[in-house]
């Protein structure tokens, strides 16, 4: 079958989110064809280049979220009326807020109004050639102001001032840029209308083209979220998410750290992202969270429990095989921490816990492997180094010996520790001390290595560990110290927990398990909701029996014969496709003024189906 893989800020770019997972998925499912539709977040990400793509990737189409050229589209009176109607309806829903645990009966009318307004804007963009200018216009700001001042609007919305309205309108313009892309052609082989299934690698902006493909062509949508995008927006809302932000809520790289947005801005943007997430969950054929923690977030945001299928992210276990098969190779007196150094990892509590561990078990060492995450991480790492020097003065064996601190801060990649496997092999117990965590990748790596673990109860830790390690409350150095001392004093227990952890990780968290799960989900979705394409002849009349029965079966024989033109299914919006042509092999094409810049470097031969 032909899969439209939708990404934002990740694959196929060298840097970005979920790129490794997407690459493994595409390479593991070589029996299918993949068209990649990628939204980039920054100019730096685009200039860094793309990864080498396998032959099953037949097309790559990219578009930026960080900028959009003026499309030059001038709407007539009727088009302006349509825009004001749909945009006004959308922002009116935002000004009413998002009901929390309100039940389906109360939230369904708002969901229908938001969806109808969103698809109305998409149909206008498809008919007229783009919405960039309209979304930046004074009409948009005035429609937003009317919605904020209307009876029944939230108090925070009524308090919005002109700078707040401009900030919200700018954010909505960036978030709705995918509506103006030329990805929704109806010419049979180009665009999302030609795929059998859309697979969004995250929620938010990545899933928006999938919503439009479902609306225009009836293409089923699969959404995978290993980190819930709405949760990410909430966590970042206090750090300037609304000031000059693009679709992802990220400020331009050249801008200084913005001030936290006003309450009106936070409220309206939270309502927009909440409504978008609810619409994505409502229209998706299947949603695959990576763990129960993400699943609970999705259910609270409106996802139907019947559509949810937990699929843990697959990880490469082969590079940890040698260490996992030699569980006794590590120093039995050494504790290991591996990860990115940042405040959320709570190394301060770990250092205080190790002070107590060192008193109970003299001679114990703590080795911290990791590099700082950004400027904040650099400052935090410096603070932790100073704290370690204060708590643990250098110890010397005699008056003429050089002192040695029992805590060391090291980076992976040196001659002693060339890789992750060697870092985990350095000790007998691996510690996770985080106060905030999604899916604990480092914990799974330690399990692959057959190491006993002590972790804080955050995120998906309990679900991942499954009784094969010790779990303590976060920000509790005493509990962390007691658990570590127990394992240091009981080598037999360490061995049993390490063996059980490795067996669990190999059963649940390998790449092979992940690929097999998605292969089955693809077949299940397409079998339940195949794309029924209507074919027209040269005169524009429907051609019965033009699509052979084999077209509903996965394979490369599903092309349309005789130059027939597929048409969007009955009940969907009609309209001319936006201008744009596929690039020749190895080249790129800049599309017309109807959409933000969109390029099409072809990774492999354009497969005519």
Polypeptide structure, described:
It is a single chain. The protein starts with a strand and ends in a 42-residue tail after the last strand. Helix content is 40%, strand content 12%. The chain is α/β, with parallel strands linked by helices and 609 residues long. The strands form three sheets. Strands 3-2-1-4-5-6 form a six-stranded parallel beta sheet. The chain has a six-stranded parallel beta sheet with strand order 9-8-7-10-11-12, with helices on both faces. It has a two-stranded antiparallel sheet with strand order 13-14. The chain has helices at residues 19-28, 43-47, 77-95, 104-128, 132-135, 138-149, 155-158, 162-175, 208-217, 229-236, 263-283, 292-300, 321-324, 347-360, 374-391, 420-425, 441-448, 461-465, 477-488, 491-508, 511-528; strands spanning 2-8, 33-40, 57-64, 197-200, 221-225, 286-289, 331-338, 365-369, 407-410, 427-432, 452-456, 470-472, 534-536, 565-567.
**Terminal Cα span:** 10 Å
* Oligomer classification: single chain
Percent strand:
5-15%
Largest sheet composition? 6 strands, parallel
How many separate helices? 21
Q: How much helix, percentage-wise, in residues? A: 40-55%
Low-confidence stretches: 100-106, 238-256, 554-609
Number of strands: 14
Radius of gyration: 27 Å
Shape: globular
Q: What class, by secondary structure content?
A: alpha/beta
Main-sheet strand order equals: 3-2-1-4-5-6
Average pLDDT score: 83
